[in-house]
Structure formats: C-alpha cells, structure tokens
Amino acid sequence: MLDLDDVRREPGRLGKLNIRHGKGSRRRGPGPRLVPLINGADRSLRWFAGDVRGQFDAGHARPGAPLFPSERKSQDGSCSRATADVFRRSLAEAARHLPAWAGKLTPHVLRHFCASQLYQSGMSLFAIQELLGHAWTGTTARYIHVHGTHVEDAWVAGQQRAADRWKGLAR
User: Fold this and answer.
1) CB 51 within 8 A of CB 70
2) From CA 112, how far away is CA 114, in angstroms rounded?
3) pLDDT tens digit string along 67-112?
4) For residue 103, which of 94, 116, 111, 114 has the smallest C-alpha distance?
5) Which among 75, 45, 81, 78 has a CA at the least distance from the CA of 60?
6) How far apart are CA 41 and CA 27, in angstroms?
7) Angle 107-120/84-94 helices, nearest 10 degrees?
8) Which pLDDT belongs to residue 83?
9) Which site from 12, 77, 90, 108 is most exposed, i.e. has the minimal number of CB atoms within 10 Å?
C-alpha cells in the first residue's frame, strides 16, 4: 500500500518511509508512522524509484502512484499496485534455493530476522520497538531471537568497556 510519495527525503538524516496502512492488532486498527530508512534502505529505494520503477510505467508523477507497481495495467493504462500476495509468492519462489526455508520464508519472518539483526548490531530494544511500530516492548522482545553465545558476547564486551575505562582512569 506504499505510494512513491510515501518515501520522504526530508525528515531525519536519511529520510523516512511514511507507513499509512500498518498492520493493526487487537482491534486497534492500523497505526500510521514514519520509519527511518536505515541500513542503506534510503539508497536502495532511491535506486529502485529512479532506475527500476520507471520500467513499469511513466506515471510516477501522478498522485497515488504506487511505489511497487504490478506488471498489470489499470483501466487508464497506468500500473496497478503489487499486492501482498506478490511479495509472499516471490519469497516462496526464492526459498526454493534455500531448502531448509521452503514453505517458511514469509514477510513476517523477515521482520523477526530484521529485528534480531538490529539488536545484535547494538540497536536498543526501544528503538526497534519504534521501528516495528509496537505499542509494547514485550511484543518487540518476542521478535528478537538471539544467538546462543549472546550472554558470553555481552560479558566480553562489558569487560572490554571496563578495561578501556580503567585505562582512561589510570593515566
């Protein structure tokens, strides 16, 4: 449900994606939010919108032009919007090359993977919560799957920070 106009370059350092039709839970309805374009998403979307999307139709200036167009045309000749099923089928097709993931790779699984990678890279639980649009940190915590060495890695990192601080005090 994203339009080209939903890619906003002005707010924040990298720009943001305006999510107008987010998934709502527990009958609260969808919650619109601005999501920062991190991890190169700003560059990827600029490339897609500038180089790839124009191959589908030239109607990028019309209001409501879809960010991800379908190859199917609307009655006026413009491209219609790619549906969620298109993305699910494409992931299923890609999973053919990953036998362990056949039938398991979904957009929702990618949300869990993204949350886990961001957490492992040092992003705080609260920042990930905001990024995913969760009302509760407990929901976000269920999205994050940590590696078996997480506790040991955190301990080693803490010891390194303490040693660095001690060196600064000893001078």
Assistant:
1) no
2) 5
3) 888 877 777 777 788 888 888 888 888 888 888 888 888 888 888 9
4) 94
5) 78
6) 30
7) 70
8) 83
9) 77
Task: Tell whether the torsion through CA atoms of 32, 49, 109 and 129 is positive or negative.
Answer: negative
Instruction: Write out the two tokens for 162.
Output: 């303490």
User: Tokens 């987010």 appear where?
Assistant: 22
For 37-51, how does the pLDDT look when each residue is reduced to its tens digit (9 = 90+)? 888 888 898 888 888
Can you say whether the dihedral through the CA atoms of 144, 147, 152, 153 is positive or negative?
Answer: negative
For residue 147, the tally of other CB atoms under 10 A from its CB is 10
For the chain, what's the residue count?
A: 171
Helix segments in the chain, DSSP class H: 41-47, 84-94, 107-120, 125-132, 137-143, 150-170
Question: Percent helix, strand and coil across the chain, each rounded to 5?
Answer: 50, 10, 35
